Amino acid sequence: MLFVGNEIKGTLKPTYQAGKLLITKMSNNSENSRFYAYLLFAEHIISKLIGLSPWTMDTAKIFRKNLFCNQLDTFTYKLSVIGSNYNILLAVFYVLCDVFVINNNLNKQINVPTSTKFEFVSILCISVIPLIYVIRQKLLISVKNQIKDVDNELMSCAGYTLVKNNTNYWIFIINNVLIYCWIIFMLLFRSSWVLRVAPILPTVFGSVLIVQYAMTINMIEKRFKSINLTLLKLKSSMRRPILNDISSIKYAYIELCDMCEKTADFYGIPTLIVIILYSIRNIGNCYEMILVFLSESEMSKTIFCSGIFAVQTCFLLTILTTSVTKLLKQSEKTTRIINQLLDRFTINQAITEKLSKFSNDLWHMKVEFTLCDIIPLNCSLLAM
Fold first, then answer.
1. Where are its TM segments located (predicted)?
2. DSSP string, 189-256
3. b/e burial code for range 342-360 (CB count within 10 A of at least 16 → b)
4. Overall domain count for the chain
5. pTM of the predicted model as reported, rounded to 2 decimal places
6. What is the spatial distance between Cα 149 and Cα 220, in angstroms, rounded to a whole number?
7. Mean pLDDT lowest for which of 58-67, 148-157, 249-258, 369-378?
8. In Å, what is the CA distance from 28 to each residue of 7, 16, 166?
9. How far is C-alpha 111 from the chain's CA centre?
10. Pseudo-torsion of CA 137, 143, 146, 147, nearest 10°?
11. Which residue range is the domain that position 252 belongs to?
12. β-pair partners for 57
């Protein structure tokens, strides 16, 4: 027993040291920015491979030395003819592989599970999404490039600092861990190669898409939070600097609202497709698990795959709805802070007029996230 315990400790020690190093890197501000750049690069490559990133990203600067931290937080994105053509070919490949390979193998088998037949339909559905990315990629490219413009505008404000947030790290890492665990169980416990491969593509595709959406929302939410903290720091009675700061903050806020609208518009249809497919599959998995428990028969090993998939679905919906809810709270908080500043600067007429105009304009800048204007994308989605 002692030998086994020592062996386990020896096995866990490298894992513990790696985790400690990861946390140390994320807690250090300088490494934080460079590490975040590496994360964006990894997310970009994974997304591009499966057809969720047809644009080009200025990744060369990640590997340059002597760069300032704020230079690593944002990148320049551009349209890519090669990436767009790759997405079109990938969508055609998905359809051909689904129809002529997976479907033919399913027809040769007897007693094919209903869930596997559903995966055939799922692959056809997700084949549309890379084409949507090609057609509407200008929207998201605009959003990603606007982040840099917003940062440049806010840098002129006195006391402005971009809030440090490690949420995107953990979203990316946890999602990858769940995906790898699920794929391993699928490869181990499924008998036929068709039963192994067919569910993998829709699952990986959907999880990467939702994580990409959540990470984009978190980047915008971080700017809203930084704006609110900067507004709270406006304590100086000097007239000119405060007026300039308010103008810069107002411009940044309008840009962020525009980014929210474009992001929700771009991800609306793809996210709706993924959530519908995930929901139907989870209903089927729950039905199969209930039958196993009621029949008192031997538990199938594939139940572990269903369990991990259910956990992953809960994780994806939670991070997406939580990210949206946090962003909405930060956007609403700006109105309350402006009202506090109006009470503080009652003596200065110019500042009061500037803040009053900003406060009135906020009523016309409503931030909303929905799935094709059908389902509100906040924590109320989890209650449905």
1. 86-106, 118-135, 169-189, 195-215, 266-283, 303-328
2. H-SSHHHHHTTHHHHHHHHHHHHHHHHHHHHHHHHHHHHHHHHHT-----HHHHHHHHHHHHHHHHHH
3. eeebeebeebbebbeebbe
4. 1
5. 0.85
6. 12
7. 58-67
8. 33, 19, 11
9. 38
10. -130
11. 2-383
12. 77
Helix (H) or strand (E) holding 64: none
Residue 78's beta-bridge partner residues?
Answer: 56
Say which amino acid occupies 211. Answer: V
pLDDT bracket for residue 23 (50, 70, 90): very low
More confident residue, 274 or 345: 274
Cα–Cα separations (whole angstroms), residue 130 to 52, 78, 209, 364: 6, 17, 11, 34
Helix (H, G, I), strand (E, B) or coil at 18: helix
Indicate the residue type of 319.
I
**Which ranges of the chain does DSSP label H, i.e. alpha helix?**
2-27, 29-50, 81-96, 103-108, 114-126, 128-154, 167-189, 193-197, 200-232, 239-295, 302-344, 349-362
Look up tokens 């599970």; give the residue.
113
Give residue-wise pLDDT tens across range 226-275: 999 988 887 555 545 788 888 899 999 999 999 999 999 999 999 999 99
Structure tokens at 62: 């990640």
Q: How far is CA 316 from CA 7, 172, 242, 264, in A?
A: 35, 11, 41, 17
